[in-house]
Amino acid sequence: MTNSALRKWAWVHKWSSLVSTIFLLMLCITGLPLIFHHEIDDLLHETAHPAEVVPDTRPANLDGILEKVHERYPGKVIQFVSWDDDEPGVLYLSINDSVAADPLTNQFARFDANTGAFLDEPDFSGRFTMIMYRLHTDMYAGLPGKLFLGLMGLFFVAAIVSGVLIYGPFMRKLNFGEIRQNRARPVRWLDWHNFLGIVVVAWTLVVGATGILNTWADLVIKVWQYTQLTEMLGAGKDKPVPKKLASLEDAVKLAREKLPDMEPQTVAFPGTVFAGPAHYVIFFRGNTPLTSRLLKPVVIDGETGAFTDMRDMPWFVTTLLVSKPLHFGDYGGMTLKIIWAILDLVTIVILVTGLYLWIARRRAPADQALELALPSIERSPA
Amino acid sequence: MSRPILTKSPLRKIYTLPTVIAVVSGVGLVFALLGDGVWDVMSWLAVGLPLGVAAWVWSRTIERPRSG
Fold this sequence. Notes:
The complex is a heterodimer of chains A (382) and B (68).
Chain A: H1 3-35, H2 37-44, H3 62-72, E1 77-83, E2 90-96, E3 107-112, E4 118-120, H4 128-137, H5 142-170, H6 185-199, H7 201-215, H8 217-233, H9 248-258, E5 263-268, E6 279-285, E7 295-301, E8 307-310, H10 315-328, H11 333-363, H12 366-372, H13 375-379
Antiparallel strand pairs in A: 1-2, 1-5, 2-3, 3-4, 5-6, 6-7, 7-8
Helix pairs in contact in A: 1-4, 1-5, 1-11, 5-7, 6-11, 7-10
Chain B: H1 8-34, H2 38-63
């Protein structure tokens, strides 16, 4: 690397960091409890649990559960039925005034999938984890908020890449992991910043990049709706919402027969954003840690209950789905979550020391400034 | 004036260990996606490697505190 290239990368590192640090700090702080959102929710909120059942118990008839929902919420409609990923035996029902209503305004009812009994109606909106989630994903600003945080993520990745490139020149006279204990505080923190930054670089890059991908989720889903979903619906894309829906139990049974090695994960009801106006879309997932994150949509006619189409998700949806666990760290048990949390804390240290070094460098007396500057730049004429 | 400031060999030496750690921890991120049980354990070890290295560096600074 030439001296001038080095200066350029140092400039990129400084400005990409300065622009994004405050938002990255917010993301690291709000992301920390989100790693444990399930445990925190269990701790803070009363939740009913499904009855213990012997393995291979026949699940309750879905139509019976839908009937109970209609009795309990007269005049309301069901948008989605989901099988809980974290707690087997729990069915989530998303309920709203109309199928076309914004899913963000849905209310939820949980049912025991085996006994068909009503469990509870969790209200996520005021929960600590939901506040953290909204701050973390869109800062309560919807799609523009998401895209803005995605942009900050891009700056973060630029800061990491430029940081790696200027790491070498900084380390020419130091061994790996060497902290100059006897030097002034800024020098010591510079050594910590460089060491921690380079040692966790794979994780920060992966979590940064997958975080950016997640900010585009809404757009990815829109593209999927306009491409694959529209193709699968065919002529059915212009049909009106049926007055009376075909049996959900039969629809899921039919779809299960088509995909015996997969499990249903979510049913989108006709008229909702993830379905056709007159068709159910049932999303199936696989059974391994990786394939359980991937979805396969099955389209069932909402009026006749006939099988219409099923396909693998296109690559851009699959990429999004795979990026989620790699961002959340929720795919390797509690141990991985704890490692995720410590790496998050290390990232906070890197961000704070970076900010501190920027301030220290500006304030430093001339002799110290030399040590904090890049080893090569210090020798080149100003 | 632009002049090459880094000869090849020291730079390679500087980046060797960080590259090994980045590759191991990066591959480890995928392990837990591939399966449960032993895959999870391998993932913990690999993704946790940077933390182990950081803990080792930290312990050295505590053992050899600042002198003057």
